[in-house]
Amino acid sequence: MGVPLDRIAAAPSDEDKVRLTAALILETFDEYYIESRGLPGLAKAAFERRDPATTIALSKQRLMIYSVSVAELGSQLKSAFPSLASEERLWREIERLYLPRIEGRYEADLAFAYIHSVRRKVYQDDWKPVEYAFSEEGTGGFGTLAEITLAFPGGAKLYPETVGEILAIPDFRVDYRDIRGDATRVAERVNRTLGLDGQAADAIQEIEMIDGGFYRNRGCYLVGRMRLRDGSLRPLVIALLNEAEGVFVDAVLLESDHCHNIFSSTLANFHVTNASYHELSEFLFSIMPKRPLGHHYSTIGFNHVGKVAVMNELKTELATNEEVFETAVGFRGTVAIGFSAPSSAYVLKVIRDHPTGNYKWGHFAGVASVLRKYSQVHEINRTGSMLDNIIYYNLKLDRASFDPALLEEILEAAGGAVSLQGADVVFKHLIVQLKMIPLTVFLETAAPEDAATAVVNLGHCIKNNAAANIFNKDLDGRNYGVSKVLKVYLYDYDALEPFTEVKIRTNIDAEEGEEDIPDWYFEDGVIFLPEEIESGLRINERSLRRLFREVHGDLMTVGYWQTIQDDLAAGRVPRISIYPEACRLQAED
Predict the structure, then answer these.
(1) Lowest CB count within 10 Å: 146, 282, 352, 575, which one?
(2) What separation in angstroms does the CA of 518 have from each of 37, 125, 515, 532, 553?
(3) Nearest-angstrom CA–CA distance, 355 and 336
(4) Distances, alpha carbon 544 to alpha carbons 139, 487, 541, in Å
(5) Number of H helices, E strands in the chain
(6) From the candidates 109, 182, 250, 388, which is the catalytic residue?
(7) C-beta pairs of 350-355 under 8 Å, 24+ apart in sequence
(8) What order of strands is seen across the sheet that includes strand 488-490?
(9) Residue 530 DSSP symbol
(10) Could you give the CA distance from residue 187 to residue 172 in angstroms, rounded to a whole number?
(11) Which residues lie closer than 8 Å to 67 by C-beta, 6 or more apart?
């Protein structure tokens, strides 16, 4: 560091300490930013080496790097400059010096979020809210979408030659195993799906592809869009894998709903070899408008910019629709109180001081323990099957935004985390998630085909989580939600356990009778009986239970779960289901 902490501690006046602190915060932010921007290149190299374990490790690093940097600096400043924890005027002076130094920089909004994060860390144990907002003075100039995309010609249909040029975008240091064949198959799939027969010369008006690759786990994605003759936009997302014979196209995604399956903050963030995060988020929003803009920032690893954007969206929703927060639809949580506004895209949660009488896990380890589980979910590969949560600390919301009955319940049941300060409700912690329809509620009113899709996706959700070493010991359908695109997510995390620590047992071969108490009954730890999954999920409709057994009967066998545990113990990365089989090239070609 150019500004040693002991120099701040030894400075003769607050004025000197403030000046040095402003310089140190910016210096530390720059170190974080440079390191974070280097990770996509490392992820690309890992893809080229067929090294998914390194890519996953990089994803974990990407998710944690900001928080670790802020936590370390906040702790150090609190020690070197203790007055920062009590005198807000000092922060006003620090910002007065800090803001001019970030003005005009592209990443100015992130730099502004960083200083507020450090301030929040210094205030961690106090009821001192810090705004989650952007500074107008500290906002850099953004570019245009044209600056992050490569344009390709349209025409009567998509031609293999154009696809070949698109496949060259990542500039891999390894070869495709059959780039001409892949280009032909991609072109044929696109033309067949869109009904392009080559008769209309302007069927595709233009094609824009992001200049860079999106890397995560085993895959690389090339992301773009096509503007068609009627002016509509269609996604063009090409999923690449790299195996022993070389790189190849595994799937082509042409529907916005299919893109939602992979471009989700519920997966570990993408490493994108293009640094223009504002334009990238805007581009993703253009092909996936059902997903709020703030979450697109999180998709590409800029969680803290997304955090501010989500809070802005929430406040705008309330003002625009003239609504207030009310108790969330669905099962009342035994550990968390969920609330939302009727038209909002989000659900908010605060952890109760003590669980309700329906709590079924014995000893309650406390609020901090539950928050750790929600935090850990943010720091792991969520495989597209766990709803991401944004955790806000020391956040204030307008008291008038709450239904009086809801506010009374929150203050009574979660008073350790919520207080009133004048016209504000201050939360020591607040969890925000995208709004889902609880699975059991969804199945009560859904059309038969939609209910069937959701039940099949529920099985994929459970399998994907197990492949990421995530086990929900409360396999209750009320803990799962259905999205607008019928994707199923786990969204309640107080019963999560590492899957490798779960003991898989069965009663299938046991004989009835009191004298035959199974040996596992006396074991410590989490015991899991696969044959009990179906009954626990609360799927009431007989035909849906039969469908679940037909598609995911392996979930009810010890062998399936043991194989996943063995793979995880050996350091292998199990495959997960991200996009529909119909999107894969071999599905029809």
Answers:
(1) 146
(2) 54, 48, 9, 15, 24
(3) 8
(4) 52, 16, 5
(5) 18, 20
(6) 388
(7) 350/410, 350/414, 350/417, 350/418, 350/427, 350/429, 350/430, 350/431, 351/414, 351/417, 351/429, 351/431, 352/413, 352/414, 353/413, 353/414, 353/415, 353/416, 353/417, 354/413
(8) 437-438, 480-482, 488-490
(9) G
(10) 21
(11) none
> If DSSP codes are grouped into helix, strand and coil, which group holds residue 133?
coil
Tell me which H or E stretch contains 141: none
Tokens read off for 266: 């519920």
Cα–Cα distance, 522 to 584 (Å, whole number)? 47
CB-count exposure of residue 494 (10 Å: 0-12, 13-18, 19+): buried
Q: Position of tokens 């709803």?
A: 387
Q: Could you list the pLDDT tens digit for every one of the 589 residues in the chain?
A: 577 889 999 999 999 999 999 999 999 999 999 999 999 999 999 999 999 889 888 887 887 889 899 999 999 999 999 999 989 999 999 999 999 999 999 999 999 999 999 999 998 777 777 778 766 544 445 678 888 999 999 999 999 999 999 999 999 999 999 999 999 999 999 999 999 988 889 999 999 999 999 998 889 999 999 999 988 999 999 999 999 999 999 999 999 888 877 776 555 688 999 999 999 999 999 998 888 888 888 888 888 888 888 898 898 999 999 999 999 887 788 889 999 999 998 999 999 999 887 777 777 888 888 888 777 666 655 555 777 778 898 899 999 999 999 999 999 999 999 999 999 999 999 999 888 888 999 999 999 999 999 999 999 889 888 888 888 888 888 889 898 778 888 887 777 888 999 999 888 766 555 456 777 777 888 888 899 888 888 898 999 999 999 999 999 999 999 999 998 888 776 666 677 778 888 744 4
Residue 80 near residue 8 (C-beta atoms within 8 A): yes
Contacts of 587 (CB under 8 A, 6+ apart): 581
| Residue 473: how many other CB atoms lie within 10 Å | 14
CA dist 61 and 39 (Å) reads 9
Beta strand 527-528 pairing with 503-504:
parallel
Q: Measure the CA–CA gap between 386 and 376, rounded to whole angstroms.
A: 12
Ramachandran region, residue 525 (left: φ > 0; alpha: ψ -120 to 50; beta: rest): left
Residues 6+ apart with CB under 8 A from 195: none
The string over 251-283, giving b where at least 16 C-beta atoms fall within 10 Å of a residue's C-beta and e elsewhere, is bbbbbbbbbbbbbbbbbbbbbbbbebbbbbbbb
Evaluate whether 464 touches 383 at the Cβ level (below 8 Å).
yes
Residue 517, classified by CB atoms within 10 Å of its CB into exposed (0-12), middle (13-18) or buried (19+), is exposed
Q: How many angstroms separate the CA atoms of 124 and 127, rounded?
A: 8
* Cα 581–Cα 583–Cα 589 angle in degrees, nearest 5: 95
Cβ neighbors of 453 (< 8 A, separation 6 or more) are 486
Does the annotation count 388 as an active-site position?
yes
DSSP secondary structure string for all residues of 374-426:
HHHHHHS--TTTB---EEEEEEEEEGGGB-HHHHHHHHHHSTTTEEEETTEEE
Residues 8 and 357: their CA atoms lie apart, in Å, by: 51
Structure tokens at 333: 């949580």
